[in-house]
């Protein structure tokens, strides 16, 4: 794991869901155009205070054990910071099961259950695969037929494509990756370090 500022290979924003050709960026700071793209994607779920004065972005995968371990840490930081706005970036990198889980989670927004479904998927012990994801959905009372229809929506494909493009442009090495302001952390970290990352972002 690394705990350092990102040296980024960056992209400038083109249309809302597109990434323009990458530019070499030698500094440690995140250009405003790229930061806006990370922080204000209307197609990304938001946790915490939608009007908060600090934004934390998480790139995650439901089959990432460190992502699962970080869920209570994230919830603790969100609960302790009423001014925190958190952007959730579904980034399925662990195979087809992860892709199915990410698509199902994003589709659950249509039923108003994304936050609950996200936490349920992160809390399950089995690997996230089609069968286990649908089992969790049924246990929560989600309409699984509607869920599977909604998984084919273009906005869901766009979210995942955007996550892949952003991650590639920044040279992210894996999940979970947390970004706040112009700084980042990768892997399982303490609530103190995550809160410090957020606090530092308020000054830049």
UniProtKB/TrEMBL annotation:
<dbReference type="InterPro" id="IPR001853">
    <property type="entry name" value="DSBA-like_thioredoxin_dom"/>
</dbReference>
<dbReference type="GO" id="GO:0016491">
    <property type="term" value="F:oxidoreductase activity"/>
</dbReference>
<keyword id="KW-0732">Signal</keyword>
<protein>
    <submittedName>
        <fullName>DsbA family protein</fullName>
    </submittedName>
</protein>
<keyword id="KW-1015">Disulfide bond</keyword>
<feature type="signal peptide">
    <location>
        <begin position="1"/>
        <end position="18"/>
    </location>
</feature>
<dbReference type="InterPro" id="IPR036249">
    <property type="entry name" value="Thioredoxin-like_sf"/>
</dbReference>
<feature type="domain" description="DSBA-like thioredoxin">
    <location>
        <begin position="55"/>
        <end position="197"/>
    </location>
</feature>
<keyword id="KW-0676">Redox-active center</keyword>
<dbReference type="Pfam" id="PF01323">
    <property type="entry name" value="DSBA"/>
</dbReference>
<keyword id="KW-0560">Oxidoreductase</keyword>
